[in-house]
Amino acid sequence: MQIHLACNHCDQLIFIDVLKPEQMAICPNCQCKLHTGKNNSEQKVVALSICAIIMLLSALFYPFISFSEQGITQTITLLDAGTILFTFNSPLLGILIDITIIFLPLTLLVFFVLIHIGLLKILPVRYSIKLLKLLFNLIPWVMSEIFLIGILISMVKIMSIADISFGLSFYSFCSFIIFYLMCLSQLDRKKLWHQILKPDSAPLIGSPARAIENNLKACHTCQLLTNESICSRCNSKTFFRTPSSIQKVTALLVTSIMLYIPANFYPIMHTWVLNQDEPATILGGIMTLWQMGSYPIAIIIFIASIIIPLAKISVLSMLCYVVSYKKNIGYSSQHQYTKIYQITEFIGKWSMLDVFVVAVLVALVQLGALMSITPGKGAIFFAAMVFTSMLAAHAFDPRLLWDKSNRLSKNNKRDI
């Protein structure tokens, strides 16, 4: 049996046999990974999901971290990280923490178990389609691993002024992240879509060129190749290219820039020592860490909070310019632009690191008049900036880069 795929980065058509376990299909045109063969993926996903659920639930209700200073001790659970933010009039940050590190991963893991033990076969087809669409769209917004790095950075920040101890819940949370990432690595999306409906027959293809040159569209939801306007498997509208991709990216990038300015102007947090306010902006916090001698942490925060957002906005702006104004792009340039886009899309959510650092410090450092930390307006603007820049990256269609060549005839530039 042969599988027909269209690379979602360059639109190259690929014909491959069913992959054996650990085999990987690589696009010969842009070198992007297309598919990986998996063995017993259903059983592995179920086992890893159950382990991750147990570890996450264990991390919720027991002491997570303890903070002690001059005989005063503050102990928090994982749930406190979001709850305490509500008491400081930062409900948006509190909701963000609870959803991205607890609610979303827990929901995904429960449904991973259910769909791999037969839920898709029981549900009506239309509900199975909606469920898979929802789950796959939610995966990029889970940020538990970033929160863990934020915890470690927060500990480095305050170890010099207080005693820190980790509870059993912290180690459970670390185990949950390991199991969760392993579970994602075993998830076979193509096999799940095939449970709902296998394609009746392969579309007629003249030659293994690009899908658009054969009047074919790859469904953006389930990747089914079709020449119809509605996908026969998931009922999504199909397009040769994402409609108004450049316009959407541009609008989101402008919004990101507008949010990035107040995110750096307003304090991201306030440190209260003996009722004296010491506000800190993102750049001010980095400089403080550098002066304290915490050079690695200062560099990590600088890269995550300053370099990555600016680089992401610059890269996406450059790609929009290339697609809009360059008439022809050489193969080597197309390949480089695609790699740059992949990296930009992957590292986007790591800019949330500084927001999570603030959330941990706010939840942990509450010692009354002696010392306390509260969130600043800058944290809200920064979180909003990260989300809009992530949406911008997802809105960009990298296949447009590969359309800027002489191989694509004018007759095939419709619906782009």
Helix content: 55-70%
User: What would CATH call the architecture of the domain at 243-407?
Assistant: Up-down Bundle
* SSE string, helices as H and strands as E: EEEEHEEHHHHHEHHEEHEEHHHHEHH
**Nearest-integer average pLDDT:** 83
Provide a compact summary of the structure.
The chain is α+β, with helices and mostly antiparallel strands.
Q: Which structural traits does this protein have?
A:
12 strands, alpha+beta, globular, three-stranded antiparallel β-sheet, about 425 residues, about 55% helix, single chain, Butyryl-CoA Dehydrogenase, subunit A, domain 3
What does this structure look like?
There is one protein chain. The protein is an alpha+beta fold and 416 residues long. It has a domain at 243-407: Butyryl-CoA Dehydrogenase, subunit A, domain 3 (Up-down Bundle). Helices cover 55% and strands 12% of the residues. It is built from 15 helices and 12 strands. It has helices at residues 41-60, 80-87, 91-116, 119-122, 125-138, 144-158, 168-186, 189-196, 245-265, 282-291, 295-325, 331-347, 353-364, 377-395, 399-403; strands at residues 2-6, 13-17, 24-26, 33-36, 65-69, 72-76, 163-166, 217-218, 225-226, 269-273, 276-280, 371-375. It has a 3-stranded antiparallel β-sheet with strand order 6-5-7. A 3-stranded antiparallel β-sheet has the order 11-10-12. Strand 3 (24-26) and strand 4 (33-36) form a beta hairpin. Helix 9 packs antiparallel against helix 11, helix 9 runs antiparallel to helix 14 and helix 11 (295-325) packs across helix 12. The model is unreliable at 406-416 (pLDDT under 50).
